Amino acid sequence: MSQMARVGNDTCPVCATAELICGKWTILIIRDLAEGRSRFCELERSLAGISPRTLSLRLRALEDEGIVVRRTFPEVPPRVEYALTEKGRALLPVVEAMRAYGRQWLADACRSDGRAQREPAAVGAA
Description:
The protein is mostly helical. It contains seven helices and three strands; from the N terminus they run αααβααββαα.
């Protein structure tokens, strides 16, 4: 666990979860994978502004944490898909809570400063 998570309380589940999901782009990757399996290029397109290197690093970190699974298909050219694991899907209520909070408390601010972005369908709405 990083120094940031140790600052408050070594046993604090909120600190540990924040450490896991609060890296830049991480929660947005989880949000996009909530819709199902995605290829690298699909994630890159949906996350406007992320560099391929950053996306690759974030996916690798999420894979190392058991949040994302990477599946490689024996094709030419190689095809790779990413999906949430059971541990990753357990974070979807956090994404939904953030979506609800943003709609209720931040909607006006997002519209007025241009931060509004494409919002995928609600998790589990398929």
